[in-house]
Structures are given as C-alpha cells and as structure tokens.
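Minutes, structural biology subgroup

Action item carried over from last meeting: produce the structure token record for Curli production assembly/transport component CsgG (Olivibacter domesticus). EB confirmed the sequence was re-checked against the source entry. Recorded below for completeness.
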Amino acid sequence: MKSIYTSPFVLLFSLFFMTSSFVSIAQQKEDVVVMLSGDKKKGKVVAINDSTIKFEYSGESLGYEFKKSDINQIEFASGRIELINDSNTTAPVSSPRSAAENADTKNKIAVLPFQIVSNDASLTTEAMQHEIQASCVSTLRKESATVQVQDPRTTNSILAKNNIKMEDVDALSPEEAAKLLGVEYVVFGTYDIKNEGTMTSGSSSSTYKGQKKDDKEKGTEYSSQNSYTTTTYSTKVELILYNESGENIFSETKRPLLGSLDSYNGAIKYIAKRMPFGSKAKK
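Output recorded by EB:
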C-alpha cells in the first residue's frame, strides 16, 4: 500500500489560504451613507423611501431614519453608488451649515419663531409666530448690550434654506439650532393663549327736541343703543435660553397683566431683563 507524502510547505500554504478566506468572510463590506456635511454612516441600508432612508449601524439592531435631503450618496456593499444629492450643486443643507460652522459664535444669540399654543382655532398663528419673534429680538437688543442678536430675517432664511418649516422648529434640538444658525445662544419661546370667552356690554342715550307754542310744548324724544362684544384672553409667555452645547442656562415664565392678544410685549421685556446678560440678571 502506497503512502501519500505531503510536504510541510504545501500544508503551510493551505492553512494560510483557509485563514485568509475566513478573515475575508468575517470582514464583510458595509453600506456607507455619505452625508452632505461630510459625515459617513457605516452599517446597512434597510429601506429607501420617498423622503427618508432606514438605516442600521453595524453591530446594532436599532433602526434610524435619515432625511434624503441631508444625504450626498449611498455607497452600497456591492460596490454600487447611488447619488442622492450632488454636493457640488444642490447641497441645500451643507452651504448654510458650513457658513455657520466657520462663523465666530461668541456672544451671538438667535431667537427662533415662537410656538403658539391656543384653544382658539380662529387665530392666524403663523403671522403671530413671526411678530412675537421680532418683538423678542427688538427687546433683547435694548436690554442686552453685551450680546449680538441675530436679525430674525437671517434666522428664518437659514431655516428655510434647510427645509425646516414652522411646524418643524420645535423638533430641532438646541444644539442643532445653535450650530445651524452659527450662534452661541438660542432662544426657544412659547406663547400660550387661552380664549376665556366673550363679554357683551352696551349703552343707551336719549335726546329730546321740543317746541313751545301757546304755552304748550311739543317735541320728539330720540334714543340710541350701542353694544360691544369683547373676547377675553388669558396669556402666558415662556422663554428658554440654551447655549451651543444644548444646556438650559435660563428659563422663565410670565403672565402679562392685560388679557389681550398683543400683551406679550410686557412679558418679554420682563423676562429679557432677567436673562444672564440682562439689566436685572442675578449676580
């Protein structure tokens, strides 16, 4: 019976080949999501929807969603590359964000459009959000000489260019908002309006016009009535100040003395004076 001889060199080569194969299998390629900001997310793309993609990081089972408007391209493990947004031309998010990152944020503050909370469906809240935002900016400029307050048009323009609508503002984290707007501080404000009901009041008056003839007086009496209907509101203003790290460094709530829709001005002035850079700040 013949014996089969295998040289040590052949055995060593086979062992090396098998080990390399196992390592190659273990190190499977990942999908890479390249963001417009330059960040790269490594893991597995689970699904691609109209406006978002579903994604799982390597070694994790928790699912995440990324907006397609924030993505440059997807580099699949197969080697295929799918372009979502051309970073050189469309980049709706990266341009403003890059400018914000390169800006000097020291002692700069931005006020976001106010959130309106009300039980009165007849109110035009979008216009009011901008009005109160502008009022808050104006007050901060008067009461806080040590900080530079960003113009509300600039704030709203950056939000719009990043496809952030009014209803999405509250979903922004303070850290994200400060980074996006290029400021050290950001103010989140809420105006709470409660319709307490209506009240009707009226007044009446009468006049008499007469003539005297043959010692007799004749005349006519005229009367008029007026009624007024007013709506009573209970309002409350809340301002929260965050720094660029997302820390809540000041918050205050104030109920205006007058129950009218535009009574927020006095409340904002009261709170602004007590902010860390206000004239009545706690030392």
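Discussion: The chain is about 25% helix and 40% strand.
Next step: EB to file the record with the rest of the batch.
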